[in-house]
Amino acid sequence: MTQELNDFINSIGELEESLIPRRVEQITDDFANSELSEAFGTDAFADVIDRWYGNQPGLLWEIIEKLRDRSPALASWANSSLRKLLKAPAEVIFDRSVLERNIKEKNGWNAPDEDVKRWFSALRIYLHTIVENADTQAKLDIVKQLWTNREGIRPAISKEWPVDARKLVGLEIKRFEEELNQVLTNQTVVVANTKAARARAREDLSLPGVVRPFGSRHPLRQTFEEIERIFLSLGYSVVAGPEMETPYYNFEALNIPEHHPARDNMDTFYMAAPAGASPLLLRTHTSPMQVRTMEKQQPPVRIIVPGKVYRRDNPDATHGFMFHQIEGLAVDTGITFCDFKGTVEYFVREFLGPKVKTRLRPSYFPFTEPSVEVDATCVFCGGKGCNVCKQSGWIELFGAGMVDPAVYGFVNYDAKKFSGFAFGLGVERLTQLKYNINDLQLYFQNDVRFLRQFV
Ligand code: FA5
Question: Which candidate, 333, 355, 330, 334, places its Cα nearest to that of 343?
Fold first, then answer.
C-alpha cells in the first residue's frame, strides 16, 4: 500500500485531473477499511497513524498540498473530500458494529470500562499526532473543526451509548476535550513562534537594500517629448490624427493625384471596404493632418502632429514598415521662407546642440513649393567627414517646404492672403542621429540591454 501510495502522490502532478478524485477516494477507502482497521487494537496503530497523519509532512498533508498545487478545483474538492480521511481513524476506533457486538457478546454493557478507555486513548494518539504535526494555523483550524463540526468527531461519538456507558463516556469526552484544547493552544503558540523565528531569520538588517529597477521611457518616446517641448515653446499645439486614412486625405488633397509617381514610394496597406465605399489605407505620412486641420480652422495655424505611419517598405537598418513622424505646419498672413528657415534652424540647434549648422537643399514634394531637404553638419565629426556622414560632413535630417498653393485650394484658404510652411520629421531617423544608433530595428526588439542605455 505504501509504495502504491507514494507512487500515486508522486504522480499527482501528471495524472489526468478528472481521474484524481476517484483515485483518492479509492485510496481513502482502502486505507480505512484495511490498513487502519487491521492496526487498531495492536501496537502498529500508533505507527500507522504517524505515517498518515504525523511524520512531517505526513501522507495526508502531502496529498492535500499536491492537490492544492495542481488546480483550484482540486484544492476545493480536496478540502471537502479529505474530511472523510481525517475522520477515518475516529470511525474505525468507534466502529458501531464493534460496539454492538461488544454489547451482544457481553450480554449487555457489563464490562466495557477498559474498552472505553482504550478507544479514547487511541483517539488521543490520533488527534495529538495531527495537532503536533500541524505546522500552520490553517491546519490547526482544520483539526479544531474536525472535532467540533456538526459532522465532526465529537457529535459522532457522543450519541447513542447504552445507559450504563454514558457516564464514563461523557467523562472521557470532557477530559479528552480539555486536553485537546490544551494541545491546540500549545501548538498555536509553537506555530506562531516558528513563523516569527522564520521571519526573523530572513531579516538581516545589515544587508544592502534591494534595488528595484525603474522602468524608463523608450528612446522614441524621449525624442517625441523633446521635439514637442521645443515646438510648444514656439507656440505650436500638438494634435493627433487617425492612422487609418482615406486616399483623399493621404494623397489627393495633398496634391498627389492617382497615378502620380510620388505615390510609388508611399505604397501602403489597404483595408477591404464595402462595395461602393471609399477604401481605407494605413497612412503613409502624418501630412494628411495638414489638410484635416486646415479644413477645420482658418489661420493662424501652428501645429505639430506626432504619430505612427506605415509603408510597404522592407525592414532594414534604416526602414520599418511602421515608423513615426512628426508633422509641422504653420500658416498665417505674411509667413515667408525666412520664418521657415529661422524655425528650422532653431529646432535643429535645440535638438542637436548649439554647434550644429543647417543647410537647405532643393527637393520635391507635391504639397510644398519650393521643397527642401534639411541637412545638418554631422554630429559625430562636427562636419569634418566620417563614416556616418560618408565623408561629406553633412547629414540629411528631414523634408520640408512652403505649403503649395494648390493645397490651399482643397481647404478653402485664400492662397493670395495666406502662406506657410510644413515639415515632416522621421522620429526614428532623428533618434538614430542623436544617439548614433546604427540599426532602426533595435527600437522595436525590446531588448533591455539596448533600452537601458537611454535611462
Ligand atoms: C514625407 O513623408 C513627407 N510627408 C514629409 C514632408 C512633410 C515633406 C511636410 C514636406 C512637408 P518622406 O517620405 O521623405 O517624406 O519621409 C519623411 C521621413 O520619414 C524620412 O526623412 C525618414 O526619416 C522617415 N522615413 C521614411 N520612410 C521610412 C521607413 N520605411 N522607416 C523609417 N523611417 C522612414
Answer: 330
Instruction: Report the C-alpha gap between 289 and 326 in whole angstroms.
Output: 11
Quote the CATH superfamily of domain 219-454. Answer: Bira Bifunctional Protein; Domain 2 (3.30.930.10)
Instruction: Decide: 431 and 437 in contact? Cβ < 8 Å.
Output: yes
Which atom of ligand 1 is the closest one to the Cα of 266?
A: 13
Instruction: With a cut of 70, say whether residue 167 has pLDDT above it.
Output: yes
Q: The cell 529597477 sits on which residue? A: 213
Categorize the per-residue pLDDT at 412 as very low, low, confident or very high, splitting at 50, 70 and 90.
very high
Q: Which long-range contacts (CB under 8 A, 24 or more apart) does 161-169 make?
A: 162/103, 162/108, 162/109, 163/109, 164/108, 164/109, 164/110, 164/112, 165/109, 165/112, 165/116, 168/112, 168/113, 168/116, 169/116
Other C-beta atoms closer than 10 Å to the C-beta of 247 total 18
Quickly list DSSP for 331-350: EEET--HHHHHHHHHHHHHH
Whose alpha carbon is nearest atom 5 of ligand 1? 424
Q: Are strands 301-310 and 237-238 parallel, antiparallel or unpaired?
A: parallel
User: Most distant CA pair in the chain: distance in Å?
Assistant: 126
Considering the chain, what percentage of its residues have pLDDT values greater than 90?
37
Our mutation pick for probing the ligand 1 site, out of 260, 287, 316, counting the most ligand atoms within 8 A of Cβ, is 287
- The single-letter DSSP state of residue 246 is -
Residues 6+ apart with CB under 8 A from 306: 224, 227, 228, 238, 240, 286, 324, 325, 326, 427
Give the residue, 423 or 18, on which the prediction is more confident. 423
Q: What is the pLDDT of residue 112?
A: 61
pLDDT grade for 1, boundaries at 50, 70 and 90:
low
327 CA distance to ligand 1 middle (Å):
10
Residue range(s) in the chain whose domain bears CATH number 3.30.930.10? 219-454
119 CA → ligand 1 middle, Å: 90
All cell numbers assigned to 169: 463516556
Which residue type is seen at 144?
K
Q: How far apart are CA 98 and CA 41, in angstroms?
A: 12
Q: Which of 126-140, 178-192, 391-405 has the lowest mean pLDDT?
A: 126-140
- Alpha helix segments (H runs only) across 71-162: 72-93, 96-105, 113-133, 137-148, 153-158
362-to-65, 312, 342 alpha-carbon distances in Å: 76, 26, 17
Predicted confidence at residue 43, as pLDDT, reads: 81
